[in-house]
Amino acid sequence: MQFDPHHLSALATILRTGSFEQAAAELAVTPSAISQRIKALEEKVGTALILRGSPCTATPAGARLAKHAEDVGLLETQLSRELALAPGAATSRLRIAVNADSLATWLIPALAAVPDILFELLVDDQDYSADWLERGEVSAAVTAADMPVPGCTRHPLGALRYIATASPDFMKRWFPDGVDSAALAAAPCLAFNARDGLQRGWMTAKTGQDISPPAHYLPSTHAFIDAARAGLGWGMNPEPLVRGPLRNRRLVALDPQLPLDVALDWQVSRVLAPAMEPVTQAIRKAARSGLLQPEA
C-alpha cells in the first residue's frame, strides 16, 4: 500500500502542532484541505488516526503512520545529500529518546552539528529509553549500555559520571556520624521520578543493602542541583554540572571515593542507520569529549 505524501505530511503536522488549524497554517493550505487529507488517509487505512481534542493526539495507527512519514523524510534527506542536490528548508524530522542528564550535559552540541534535521526529543530515564525504540515510537535513543534493542545498531558512547552530593548543612543534619545505612534510610533523597534507580544503585554500592529512603521527585536535572544546594535532599548529580559547586563547597560529596559511572549507548534503527549516519557521527563525536571513555 502506498500513501500520498501530502496526506502523511498533514497527519504528522497535526500531531506535532496539536490542531488542524495550526497544521494548515504551517503547510500553507486551508483547514478544509487538511481535513480532507486526513479523511482520505483514514478511509485508505480503514481506521481513525487522530483523536480530535485540544491538542489533537494520535491513535496507535496514527502514531505509527506519523513515524513512517518522519522516516521517509530522513530517507529523502539522505538521497538529496548523496545526489548533491541543493539544500532546501529543513523538512526531515527525527524523534529521539534521551535521558535528561545527557540532554543537560553533552548532547546539544551533537544536535547543533546536524543543521538539516529538526529534532523531537522524548525524555526518559536511560533504563527505559530503549523501550521507546523497541516500540517503534522513535528512530534512535541514548540508552543504558546493557539494554540492546532487536533490529538496532549499537554504538558505545562512554560513561556519564555521577556524584552523590548534598549541601554542607544537609550533611551536618543527616550524616553527623558518617554516611551509613541507617542514616541513608532516614535522610531524604532526590529522584527524577519513581523509576529513577540511580540513588538506590549508589546506596547499594555504598552499603551492600537495598535501602528505600524518603524521596522528593524532581523531573529536572538542574532542579536536582538547585534542590541539593538548598538542602532539600541528597542526589546523584552529573559530575560535569557539579564541579563548580563542589569546588566552592556549595555542595559536598557523600563519599568522594565512590562515584557512579553509567555507561551509555547510541542505538539506531538498522533500517534508518544509513540515513542517520551524520547524526550518529555527531553523537559519537560529542560523546568522546563529554563522557568518560574506556582506557585504551
In short:
With 296 residues, this protein is an alpha/beta fold.
Briefly, what CATH class of the domain at 160-261? Alpha Beta
Radius of gyration using CA atoms only: 23 Å
Give the integer mean of the pLDDT values. 90
Strand tally is 11
| CATH topology-level fold name of the domain at 160-261 | D-Maltodextrin-Binding Protein, domain 2
| Secondary-structure class | alpha/beta
Distance between the termini: 50 Å
CATH architecture of the domain at 160-261: 3-Layer(aba) Sandwich
How would the global form be characterised? elongated
Total of helices = 13
Low-confidence stretches: none
Query: What is the N-to-C order of secondary-structure elements (H for helix, E for strand)?
Result: HHHEEHEHHEHEEHHEHEHEHEEH
Beta-strand percentage range: 15-25%
CATH superfamily of the domain at 160-261: Periplasmic binding protein-like II
Largest sheet: 7 strands, mixed
The proportion of residues forming helix, as a percent range, comes to 40-55%
Keywords:
alpha/beta, Arc Repressor Mutant, subunit A, D-Maltodextrin-Binding Protein, domain 2, two-stranded antiparallel ribbon, 20% strand
